[in-house]
Amino acid sequence: MTRILFVCLGNICRSPMAEFIFRDLAAKAGLAQAFEVASAGTSSEEYGNPVYPPARRKLAEHGISCAGKTARQLTRADYGAYDLLIGMEAHHLAAMRRICGGDPAGKMHRLLDYTGQPADIADPWYTRDFDTAWTQIESGCRALLEHLTRDKEGI
Ligand code: 4NP
């Protein structure tokens, strides 16, 4: 079992999209039981709020429900509770290290660093471009799943 926490700023757009996309990809690969997946924000701004409607609609277009998810803030305890903490932008990684007291076990990574096109994922809450967010997050999740399952048949 690999425990993955996706992290963005507000936990209402990018990290919940990553959480539900990754879970969907894992389930379709017959690996639902191999992963525990969740998401959190570096900010408490959106605490308790549901996934932002345009992000929810983008997931729904692809047959993915995010019902029941509400935003929460990353805590220091998450560092021990998860094997991987995956941020969307380089500056999230800095905030994640601040909140968790560093990253001594090397658990923190940026999502698109698993792809051939390492980059930050721009915030669709500001850009309004949920199509690009979907494309980038989906490619990152695919690459992460591939990375975690490579050479590990039957995990
Ligand atoms: P997210 O987007 O980090 O992808 O969830 C944002 C949502 C809310 C805010 C910023 C970014 N905000 O400032 O409230």
Note down, in words, how this protein is organized.
The chain is of the alpha/beta class. It has a single domain (2-151), classed as Response regulator (Rossmann fold). The chain has helices spanning 14-28, 53-61, 76-81, 90-100, 124-127, 130-149; strands at 2-8, 35-41, 84-87, 108-110. A four-stranded parallel sheet has the order 2-1-3-4, sandwiched between helices. Strand 3, helix 4 (90-100) and strand 4 form a beta-alpha-beta unit. The termini are close together. The relative contact order is 0.21.
Outline of this structure?
Helices cover about 40% and strands about 15% of the residues.
**What sort of overall outline do the alpha carbons produce when their principal axes are compared?**
globular
What is the CATH architecture term?
A: 3-Layer(aba) Sandwich
Listing every helix as H and every strand as E from the N terminus to the C terminus, the arrangement reads EHEHHEHEHH
Q: CATH superfamily assignment?
A: Response regulator
Number of helices: 6
Read across the widest sheet, the strand sequence of neighbours is 2-1-3-4
Task: Work out the radius of gyration.
Answer: 14 Å
Q: Briefly, what CATH class?
A: Alpha Beta
Q: Please name the CATH topology.
A: Rossmann fold
User: How many strand segments?
Assistant: 4
What is the percentage of strand-forming residues?
5-15%
What secondary-structure arrangement, pairings included, does this model have?
Elements (H helix, E strand, L loop, with lengths): L1 E7 L5 H15 L6 E7 L11 H9 L14 H6 L2 E4 L2 H11 L7 E3 L13 H4 L2 H20 L6
